[in-house]
Design goal:
Structural class: mainly alpha
Number of helices: 2
Helix content: over 70%
Oligomer: single chain
Number of domains: 1
Strand content: under 5%
Largest sheet: none
Distance between the termini: 31 Å
Shape: elongated
Length: 63
């Protein structure tokens, strides 16, 4: 089975969305406020990347 570009982009989007969820989940589990914020910042950064992937898949555009 050979993947095409769209398949790879969809996989990247799913992986990135999973990282957003994981970082947010981790931020709720730790008791250090500084680490919580650090993880939430990572989640936000990954969320922006996920949005770019989604936009590209839907419109063929990346900002």
């Amino acid at each position: 089975m050979k993947f095409d570009s769209e398949d790879y982009l969809k996989k990247a989007l799913l992986d990135t969305q999973e990282r957003v969820r994981d970082f947010m989940d981790f931020s709720y589990e730790v008791d250090n406020p500084e680490v919580q914020q650090f993880l939430r910042d990572f989640a936000k950064s990954e969320g922006l990347q996920a949005q770019k992937l989604k936009d590209y898949l839907e419109n063929g555009k990346v900002y």
